[in-house]
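Hi V.,

Quick status before I head out on leave. The structure for the redesign project is tokenized and pasted below; the design run finished overnight.
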């Protein structure tokens, strides 16, 4: 298949491009910083673009978006602006299949595996403070995607952590009990959507059960880069 990966130079995006090439797909990796893009291989095209300006999707069979920005208290517009552009570009190019990454925190809920700390402290705190502008904009993105006439899937991971090993990740509609998702599993889940129609027109939560970090270790790394 011809796959366009948006956010290709991010933690999930790099893994997604690698997995897609290894599976024999042709991949267009879209990044604002092609000079720092580390993945190589036959079938790879690296394209420089800022998706708030231009979304090069012509000729694609599927668009997989892992676009993201770090948490900030300032307004976040990347998810909504890029999605509006992506939808318009896909319509113009006649591309129908779109898979976007959102977050389980767009719909805060009780996670059976989260315990008191996650459910009663971290989730309420993060969604009300440092993550608020991100999740507000992700909800706008989700609505734009759902209201589109495309063959869409919204993928909601939980807390991301780095791993290159794909595990038997778990999928559930809208919400999950799990609190972690590895970037390798998220990438594998996104890639699976390229050829599987099970989740078309639906929102799927993806979580990892094997090899997960502790909650505090993940928070330190994701929130403070340590
Ligand atoms: N961290 C968590 O615990 C967590 C939990 C749930 C969901 N998520 C979501 O999961 C997704 C993947 O996360 P991640 O940490 O793997 O991603 P990431 O490393 O933050 O990568 C996101 C990529 O988006 C690209 N990007 C941003 N603005 C762009 C623009 N205007 N034009 C083109 N590219 C742009 C950047 O690439 P360039 O350098 O090429 O610009 C960046 O590498 C994100 O949407 C994130 O919000 C994260």
């Amino acid at each position: 298949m011809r796959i366009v990966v948006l956010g290709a130079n991010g933690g999930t995006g790099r893994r997604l491009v690698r997995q897609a090439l290894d599976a024999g797909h042709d991949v267009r990796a879209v990044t604002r910083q092609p000079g720092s893009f580390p993945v190589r291989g036959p079938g790879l095209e690296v394209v420089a673009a800022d998706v708030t300006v231009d979304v090069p999707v012509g000729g694609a069979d599927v668009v997989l978006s892992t676009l993201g920005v770090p948490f900030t208290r300032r307004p976040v517009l990347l998810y909504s602006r890029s999605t509006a552009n992506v939808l318009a570009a896909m319509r113009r190019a006649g591309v129908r299949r779109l898979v976007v990454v959102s977050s389980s925190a767009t719909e805060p809920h009780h996670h059976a595996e989260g315990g008191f700390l996650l459910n009663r402290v971290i989730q309420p705190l993060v969604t009300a403070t440092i993550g608020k502008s991100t999740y507000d904009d992700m909800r706008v993105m989700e609505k734009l995607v759902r209201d589109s006439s495309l063959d869409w899937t919204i993928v909601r991971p939980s807390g991301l952590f780095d791993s290159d090993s794909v595990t038997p990740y778990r999928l559930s509609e809208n919400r999950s009990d799990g609190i972690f998702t590895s970037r390798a599993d998220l990438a594998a889940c996104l890639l699976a959507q390229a050829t599987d129609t099970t989740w078309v027109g639906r929102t799927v939560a993806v979580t990892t059960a094997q090899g997960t970090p502790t909650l505090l270790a993940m928070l330190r790394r994701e929130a403070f880069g340590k």
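Above is the designed sequence. The mean pLDDT is 95.

G. will cover questions while I'm gone.

Best,
W.
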